[in-house]
Design a protein that fits this description.
36% of the residues lie in helices and 26% in strands. The protein is an alpha+beta fold and 80 residues long.
Length: 80
């Protein structure tokens, strides 16, 4: 199991911790800060997805006028 700790930029959330198993599937996502309910929903939806699938679905999503979003930052964390 690999643990990724990521500090998002340009969004309300302050920290993401992602656990990825040996098959490259997301097993857990915890986010500090941000819109709690929405981020709990995202965490539930990405659980069991491959990192490539999460990246392809979430990368490029914007939040209002911001050039990024919490889902986009999650994709960036998984790419890094």
């Amino acid at each position: 199991m690999k643990k990724i700790t990521f500090q998002p930029k340009g969004v309300c959330s302050r920290m993401m911790t992602i656990e990825v198993d040996d098959d490259n599937r997301v097993q857990n996502l915890e986010v500090i800060g941000g819109c709690h309910g929405n981020l709990q929903g995202i965490a539930a939806l990405v659980k069991g997805m491959t990192t490539d699938e999460v990246i392809s679905r979430l990368e490029g999503i914007r939040c209002g006028n911001k050039p990024t979003s919490c889902p986009d930052q999650l994709a960036q964390a998984l790419k890094g």
